[in-house]
Design a protein that fits this description.
The protein is of the alpha+beta class. The chain folds into two domains: 8-124 and 224-332, no CATH class; 127-219. Helices cover 70% and strands 6% of the residues. It has helices spanning 2-24, 27-33, 36-44, 47-62, 94-99, 104-119, 127-171, 175-179, 182-239, 245-256, 269-282, 285-298, 324-332, and strands at 70-75, 82-85, 89-93, 305-307, 314-316. It has a five-stranded mixed beta sheet with strand order 2-3-1-5-4. Helix 9 crosses helix 12. The longest helix has 58 residues, at 182-239. It starts with a helix and ends with a helix. 25% of the residues are buried. Residues 1-26 have low confidence and may be disordered. Bound molecules: zinc ion. Zinc ion (ZN) is lined by residues 113, 117, 226, 229.
């Protein structure tokens, strides 16, 4: 509510003071300067896709990431999140875009972060995969308990043998009579049932311990990957000429999101922000931008775009451009 009133106030002031200036600049003026490919994108793509396309185009060309296609999708759900999906997909939720709607630099950091996950081949361990890992742990635990059982049995046999031999030696009672009575048989069976129950409990206990360790490791790995993707997101966005404060802005949004202040499989947002600040001091945005500018100057041709063959994501084509059909004709028909 508070924010709404601030925005409304700001807009009113702008209309009051600068309405003339706004009218004096014909909307076509900015569009005229746009490269025809960007004009085409602006006219044909939904606004969010247009922004995502422009951001990917610029980041990819500034950072030498333009040799393979990228895909972008805006997920129409109000979640403060984005993810790197299969086959170079960068999926951004409408919720997070809505929260940074005025900042292409923030969008660039989100997109750059996901591109970083792809470049580093980070893979999240899904539920099915985790279940499979737990099954492996169970097999491991069962093996361990079996081995313990074998070891315990041979220990028992050794000591039983020892006492039988000792008794036999002392009383001259034949071996068989001393162990194969019916009551002795029942006792052995009961003992082995108890041992089975014991083994099962022991297996469960080992599985629980191993699972807790696995989850801890996965979470730690996940957090490391997030830091890595954050760093790449910053580097990519800065090289492409975006404002590095955009990355801080994203962290602010994340830290306001319930749970964002906690360490989970993602590090807590304040920690991520701290690391970003450290990185910005070590690798200043201006230096990164100089490198990006050099790459962009080599070829100013925008990447082209298409509806991907899945029919629902936007494909941003590699710098080589063109279709396989055109490539074929170039190779053989000229
Ligand atoms: Zn991430």
């Amino acid at each position: 509510m508070h924010r709404t009133s601030i925005r409304a106030g700001a807009r009113a002031a702008l209309v009051g003071v600068a309405a003339g200036a706004l009218v004096a600049v014909p909307p076509a003026h900015a569009a005229e300067k746009l490269h025809p490919t960007y004009q085409l994108a602006k006219q044909n793509l939904p606004a969010d896709w247009y922004v995502a396309y422009r951001v990917v185009d610029r980041i990819a060309r500034a950072n030498g990431l333009d040799s393979t296609p990228w895909r972008v999708d805006v997920v129409k759900e109000y979640q403060i999140n984005a993810f790197a999906g299969e086959n170079n997909l960068i999926a951004v939720y409408a919720g997070i875009l809505d929260q940074v709607t005025d900042s292409s630099s923030a969008v660039a950091c989100i997109v750059g972060h996901e591109m970083g996950h792809h470049v580093k081949r980070h893979t999240a361990v899904g539920e099915a995969e985790k279940a499979e890992l737990v099954e492996k742990l169970r097999a491991e635990a069962t093996r361990e308990v079996d081995q313990e059982k074998v070891a315990a049995k041979s220990e028992r046999e050794k000591s039983t043998m020892g006492s039988i031999v000792a008794r036999a030696a002392g009383s001259q009672v034949p071996f068989a009579g001393s162990i194969v009575g019916s009551s002795a048989g029942e006792a052995i069976e009961k003992r082995s049932e108890a041992r089975d129950k014991e083994s099962q409990d022991r297996i469960e206990q080992i599985v629980a311990e191993k699972k807790a360790k696995l989850e801890k490791e996965l979470a730690e790995k996940g957090r490391q990957q997030e830091f890595e993707a954050d760093a790449l997101g910053y580097r990519y966005a800065a090289a492409a000429g975006f404002d590095p404060e955009g990355c801080i802005r994203v962290m602010e949004v994340l830290s306001q999101t319930p749970g964002g202040e906690l360490d989970t499989e993602h590090p807590a947002a304040p920690k991520r922000m701290e690391k970003l600040r450290e990185l910005m001091a070590q690798e200043p945005a201006a230096d990164l931008k100089a490198k990006g500018d050099a790459a962009l100057a080599k070829d100013a041709t925008p990447l082209t775009f298409d509806l991907a063959r899945d029919g629902k994501s936007l494909r941003i084509n590699p710098a080589a451009g063109g279709s396989a059909a055109e490539d074929l004709e170039k190779r053989f028909d000229r």
